[in-house]
Specification:
Residues 35-138 form the SnoaL-like domain. Pfam families: SnoaL_2. InterPro entries: NTF2-like_dom_sf (IPR032710), SnoaL-like (IPR037401). The protein has 166 residues and is an alpha+beta fold. It has one domain: Nuclear Transport Factor 2, Chain: A (Roll), CATH 3.10.450.50. Helices cover 40% and strands 34% of the residues. The protein is built from 6 helices and 6 strands; from the N terminus they run H-H-H-E-E-H-E-E-E-E-H-H. It has a 6-stranded mixed β-sheet, sandwiched between helices. Strand 5 (119-129) and strand 6 form a beta hairpin. It is globular.
Length: 166
């Protein structure tokens, strides 16, 4: 199922969202920002249940998962793979009640690739919150080639060579 089909399904199955401009909506956005402000394994375990709904759909362009338990596993593994990762929210724009496009910039320092080098990338997340203010739909849009793939030894060399020829 495509991401937008999932979004339509979630809109139908979870129609209630925090009221636009409410404290609940503001708190939902703050929980999301807090969760990614310092991406570590212990924070994943502690903060995912209050940030993401049980029935969450999550796609970060690298992997798509459905459900909170698979999301905790995926994000824990991802957090273990980095020395440091921080996301700074640049802006949050409502697209309809309970849904936002959240623009961000992210810094990653990998454990295995280019150790100690800070990699910065930008992106956006399309979020939908459920009635409790937890993320039920999370679709990222970012350039994984710049943010991740260019740092993998052989693949990174090939990506940089292709970019030079364009």
């Amino acid at each position: 199922m495509e991401s937008f089909e999932v979004l339509d399904e979630l809109r139908r199955s979870h129609p209630d969202v925090p009221a636009p401009g409410s404290d609940a909506e503001r708190e939902a956005l703050e929980r999301f920002a807090t969760f990614f402000s310092s991406f570590t394994p212990d924070r994943v375990e502690r903060l995912v249940p209050q940030t993401y709904a049980d029935a969450v759909y999550f796609n970060d362009t690298l992997k798509s998962v459905r459900g909170r338990a698979p999301l905790i596993l995926y994000l824990s593994e991802s957090a273990e793979a980095v020395e440091d990762c921080r996301v700074e929210i640049v802006s949050s724009t409502p697209v309809q009640p309970g849904e936002f496009i959240v623009r961000w910039k992210m810094m990653i320092r990998f454990k295995r690739f280019r150790r100690g080098v800070e990699t910065w990338t930008i992106g956006a997340s399309h979020l939908r919150f459920d009635a409790e203010g937890r993320v039920i739909y999370h679709q990222d849009y970012w350039n994984a080639a710049d943010g991740l793939f260019q740092h993998i030894p052989v693949l990174g060399w090939m990506i940089r060579a292709i970019k030079r020829r364009l």
